[in-house]
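Bug: token stream looks shifted between consecutive jobs. Job 1:
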Amino acid sequence: MTRKLFNYFLQGLLFAAPIGLTGYIIYLVFKFSDGILKPLIEEFIHFSIPGLGLVIMVFLITLLGYAGQSVIARPFKILLERLLKKVPLLQMVYSLSAILWRLL
């Protein structure tokens, strides 16, 4: 019984850790962008713009997603496709899953 509870605890921890880490990273990016840009903008326009850190954070996360998809993921996907096409059974499974993914 305690072994099962411990396993549930570990599974919950493995589920919560990425969510918590993502939230913490978003918080750090927000504080970083707000801390750097707020004084610069106040120097030029002499007043504070609420929410500017949030806008910049969304922009940076979107830019990171674009870079991850185009710069990092695309070459890895091409390499993976080349490897999978060399193995007949894996090539068939990969092709079917790719078709299903595009349909969804």
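Job 2, same session, no restart:
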Amino acid sequence: MPLLPLGTQRLGAARGLADWRTYPLAVRTLQEYHQGSTSIRGRTDREPPLRDCRLDTRLGLVVLPNPVFTASGTAGHGHELADHLDPAGLGAVVVKSLHAEPWVGNPAPRVHATPAGMVNSVGLQGPGVEAWLEHDLPGLAATGARVVASIWGRTVEEFARAAELLADAPDVVVAVEINASCPNLEDRRALFAHSSSATTEVVDAAGAAQRPRWAKLSPNTAELPDIAAAAIAAGAEAVTVANTVLGMVIDTETRRPLLGAGRGGLSGPAIRPVAVRAVFDTREALGDFPIIGVGGVASAEDAVQFLLAGATAVQVGTATFADPRAPARILRDLGRWCDRRAVARLDELIGAAHG
């Protein structure tokens, strides 16, 4: 089935995506793939953005030309996007989370579509940092993209090892995103991102990468603002808010969970209000500190909601499974949205909902 050439086929989700009747973006783009009418590439590339608005943004020491990134785990290792959009045109490409060693991931099935998103339990499958540096990064670097390497581990030491392996990465790797939503084997498998002290430890350990650190946090805790503050105190230059919401789908015929690992993480439009609220609360607690908003961004208007809530940038994730050009489309439309409303700089939007 050649319709969805990125992560969808690899994860076995293509069939489910066609049933997202409450996700108009997915349905529309899939129909266009089938019918071959107005191509997505034509819609994205032939209409230049107006761009009177300055979209450049700063996250600590990292200055990027615009605030639209890919989200980790939804665009492979980034170079796969080159057939669908210009990776260098995005603010940054965040690659799939990397362990220090190759990792097999969870048993299939790993993905199941829901009425407004999907539940996944891929299990962080990946080639390991060294293989990624040798085989995947060169292709992505050749596109001119700014790369953010996402890392994970089951212990603080594993985070540190992954970071150490990235220390000699080329300058195209502009930052490291710390996926703190991983089970901590040293604390009864509680998530690092559910504890201020554990988050402090992994952010500190990631300093071995010798480049700016962004901490990706979980929405599944009432302590998110405090945990974000702990990440900052440990040296994070930005926080990514937020990862997937805990979820499960059960097969009514077999009476068993549909995913091979049982539980999973819900992403897509269903979680956008949750993620916007998480960004708003984090901004309220931290003040003017870089926040990257993620969770159900499928349009420029969605991105604007996150910016108004306090995000400095946004990541596009699940939408990319249905439309590989979604990040470029959203960036284009964001420029137009700003121009039509005489927004001269992105700063005019960031945190404006706080009054």
